[in-house]
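Note to self: keep these together.
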Amino acid sequence: MSLQSTIDRALAETPSGRVVWVALSGGLDSSLLLTLAVEACRRYPRPIHALHVHHGLQAAADDFEKHCGWLCSRLGVPLFVERVNISLSGGLGLEGAARQARYLAFARRVAAGETLWLAQHRDDQAETFLLAALRGSGVRGLAGMPVRRHAGGVVLERPLLSIPRSTLEAYAGSLGLRWVDDPSNDDQALDRNFLRRSVLPLLKARWTHVGEALADAARHSGEADALLDELAAQDLERLGGNPGQLAVTALKAMSFPRQRLLIRHACRRLSLPTPPESRLTALMTQLTARRDARVRIGWPDGEARIWRERLYLRRAVSPLPAGWRIDWDGLTPLATPLGRFTPTLRRREGGPVELRLTLRQGGERMRLAGRGSRDLKRLLQEADLAPWERERLLVAWHGETVVAALLPEQGGWLAVAEGWEGVPRCR
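Structure:
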């Protein structure tokens, strides 16, 4: 199949009438992809837009944008430019931080139901496989880049992923295509550039098919990862189907590799970052902790807790600031350290109210209809809440009287005092 036919087929498979975006850096690969996409539109009409991410990392960045503008003007394609700031504070390194910034820019611009084409090719896949292997990645990392995946309703697709760069270079030459070369691609201090410039040419001198072989290895790893994902999904269903709560007894009956597989799968289902190997090992060790122990294993943006023979996987939350309080009218949406909520609280007899929300200090009591005065601690025990949920109870005061208790993580009122009405109530 010719290169143009490959792009024709890929475009024909996109939804008719929906925008197909091409991530355009200005380099050979993306410039050729955009050119082929415009030609394919003659046979399969689709709206084509180009998206350029301006990283601002080097003096040549403005020249990249100018070239993208020239090419899009020549092809009659609308160009959208997203300017990003690269932060190295997240520990991802320059390459990782730039990649993260690009994908955030893509998410801002591309709407749900639309398709974004990326110009990675077979040589890129081989480099990705080697990088993953050198980092000690499992099969998911070794699978490299998928041809197609869904993210937030957007289809990310790499129609050139099976094509070697040599083929792209030859085709671009036959078209007389113009592009810009990124000077940073020669910087072998960057891992990917070192593989591209020094390692892969050496391997190719001995094994001429190295690019194809490594790309095939990535594809096989992808197939293995898909099968493992199916197995983990079956295990999750057998344990009740809730990725946020796993039965510890059933989990302990599995082998360690299967435990790890299920926990990682559950984290992905919850859109949580998967725990690093050391944290995952520590977590599995804690599965045998005594029933009354309060187990917490944390990692960046995620945490696992064990309580009453259940493993809870959740997003990590920051400690509540001591002394927090806020005045409230019972109607305005609430902005709290735990998020934004829209409960309401009012007197049954009506009229404006002046409320104060605080953290629970201990010893608070509330008068409930038909039950008299009750200690909030007892109400929490009756609700059978996990300890970390009890610690985040917010108390609503009217003057010096407790009139309601809010559980932000459940988004509703645990209890409302006699003579008051609150919506929503916790289930």
